[in-house]
């Protein structure tokens, strides 16, 4: 049982607060400390709806965004390794709405209007987007092992042009912003033949601003171009993204072909396999980091709520008591950038914590500033105390929970089996080559290594470190790497190499030059045959 504040007698702290899990602690902190501040200063009208229990208790979610026919739905099918209810795939824009693919004992589809009244699902606040959206929002439920750990949100394919944006009947960018605030990972999918970022796609990416740490980019169907074209495609994609995602950091881009069909160009097969495994590891880690992500999002929300309270209370303070209210309101809206600067200096707030000036100016037009509440210092102090002390203790709770439980990982579907057996990444390659062979793999090139060995003037069948160094330096590998190779090859730890140890050293150099990593300990299949006879020497390898 955890307690994240100093406990008094009876196992409770002075405020009577005690929590079993981080999730319970986060929910209680939000309800008791942050929610009163949000409600007082109309935070939910300006920024984001109130959080509910389902928002804290839901599984990690992955949001897929991309233009039509970039393979979003196929990507989900690839991860799950089975069709899901409501799935439609084709070269034309087939997915015309949002589909939440979630775990359920019984396979079926729940329509949007029924979904937003279910208190167990984290979608109740989507009710604000109206029937035009809810008629194009469904939940696809199925018993799938992958979905026991994560939920996946499929989105409509994005087209270019003004016509489609108007015909949706709901604010597509705002819906994406709502999901972006709540999901754990945002994957932007691009097709190797569709690198242009349309107006609506650009608007959609900008709606995800502030969630940069969640964004990953997938360049799908990369097997449809050869290596030279792939380099050009990758460069063009990074250039296009640079104009839309205005961050100094480079976005992580995964290359691959995410469907269960033969590769059209196999020359980059090894690259695609490595990239897909990197992406899988990233997605698999989501359940393990879910509590930390929710904690991070709560901190971001608290900082924004504090800034919003300062803005609203400042506008209230500047309003005249009787005459000239409308004129003063227009003046304050025009002066909003200046007000931001004043509040930054007065309350020592970072400029990055302030909401968009343009958006605030548009929304403030519809409010009577004289009805805004004045600054309530106690509410601000309560949130400050939460950020300063209680969040830190929740961090400790997260570490405690991680140490007492096995790490939660996504399993099943495409995440299962690829790491085991002969088709696992790196199987039979690099340091693993020869693991299932009867003979010592180094013997295949030993005759060449022996020719070099006998030119180094061995004494009693061994060469000194000085002579070995001259030859090993010809590889141009750094001394730190060569030092590691020497330790691995010198099995009997006598500071000299016999012909088999020297051959092993040359083999390890070859492995490193081919781009593979060296092990920390020499695998059994690489131990020289003459050194396997002596158990003590074998252990030293």
From TrEMBL:
This is EH-domain containing 4. Transmembrane segments: none annotated. Keywords: ATP-binding, Calcium, Cell membrane, Endosome, GTP-binding, Membrane, Metal-binding, Nucleotide-binding, Phosphoprotein. Residues 56-287 form the Dynamin-type G domain. GO terms for cellular component: plasma membrane; recycling endosome membrane. It is a peripheral membrane protein. Residues 477-512 form the EF-hand domain. One of its GO terms (biological process) is endocytosis. InterPro entries: DUF5600, Dynamin_N, EF-hand-dom_pair, EF_Hand_1_Ca_BS, EF_hand_dom, EH_dom, EHD_N, G_DYNAMIN_dom. Residues 522-541 are annotated as: Disordered. It is found in: Cell membrane; Endosome membrane. One of its GO terms (molecular function) is calcium ion binding. Residues 445-533 form the EH domain.
